[in-house]
Amino acid sequence: MDADLYDVARAHHPFRPGRLLLWVVVLAVAANFAYIVANNPNFGWPVVAAYFFDPTVIHGLYVTLGLTVVAMAIGIALGLLLAIARMSSDRLASSVSSLFIWFFRGTPLLVQLIFWYNLSTLFPEISIGIPFGPTFASWNTNDLISPVTAAIVGLALNEAAYMAEIIRGGLLSVDKGQAETAEAFGMTRARALRRIIIPQAMRSIVPPTGNQLISMIKATSLVSVIAMADLLYSVQSIYNRTFEVMPMLLVAVLWYLFITSILNVGQSAIERHYNRGERDAAVRKDDAAEKAVQQEDAR
């Protein structure tokens, strides 16, 4: 028994020359690519450095971040309501939610943005009133649907459709016995969702939500087609004057990579937070198994 333990304690992974050779090849190719990119004058690195913190670019960056935060917040809130409605036993709520998700997931985001921006061609006025009855108030559509409004509405409604499915999947991952137990203790369905179901579902909801947030950062570049001065539109306005197309696109690429890298770190931290319970349970299980083995050896 002691000899077996000694052998296991000294165990190590065998040396793999093929693996080392593969690492050398990959690093050599990466270093060669980095050297080519750094020394290629066509990339215009001095131009990239000169415009990286340009006020126009920074303003576009703020617009991109603002659109992301607002659209994502609305999308998550509306997506939660849609997910609950789709899981409801009420046929009307479930049907309306399913129809919303079907439409906004089934049409391209770019088409949706252009549609909202040009809504006035279909409805010159937006009115509030009783169907087939009197109108209480009306507004000119062009006054309501500005590029900012069209961008927020288009991004938020599209995001809500995807978040609804993500949240619904997370809620379905929680054992139904949890809701039944909550009802047995006299909790309402809303309180059970808020206090028991949703916190447990977060382990399944957070990773895809992080992916959606990163996708939203990149999706905001589509609002440039409706003259919204986001990051991409800002660099386009500069290279339309300077004709430095590739260097200015590199400015946008580097900013997008910087933002998504920060978001990846934040997503990993949140995932670790919600996985603490699983890790602690696994550690307790391992400790219990080790104690059982020790007790068996003592006998």
Task: Explain what you see.
The structure is a single chain. By secondary structure, the protein is mainly α. It has a domain at 56-263: Orthogonal Bundle (MetI-like fold). The protein has helices at residues 2-9, 17-39, 45-51, 55-87, 91-106, 109-117, 141-144, 147-172, 176-184, 189-219, 231-242, 245-274, 276-298, and strands at 125-129, 135-140. The chain has a two-stranded antiparallel ribbon with strand order 1-2. Strand 1 (125-129) and strand 2 (135-140) form a beta hairpin. Helix 3 (45-51) crosses helix 12, helix 8 packs across helix 10 (189-219) and helix 11 runs antiparallel to helix 12. The longest helix is centred in the first third of the chain and has 33 residues, at 55-87. The radius of gyration is 27 Å and the shape is flat.
Describe the protein's topology.
Elements: H1 2-9, H2 17-39, H3 45-51, H4 55-87, H5 91-106, H6 109-117, E1 125-129, E2 135-140, H7 141-144, H8 147-172, H9 176-184, H10 189-219, H11 231-242, H12 245-274, H13 276-298
Helix pairs in contact: 3-12, 4-5, 4-8, 4-11, 5-8, 6-8, 8-10, 9-10, 10-12, 11-12
Salient structural properties:
299 residues; MetI-like fold; two-stranded antiparallel sheet; 13 helices; 4% strand; amino-acid transport; membrane
The helicity comes to over 70%
Our measurement of the CA-to-CA distance between the termini, rounded to an integer number of angstroms, reads 14 Å
Average pLDDT reading? 84
Decide which structural class fits the backbone: mainly alpha
Number of strands: 2
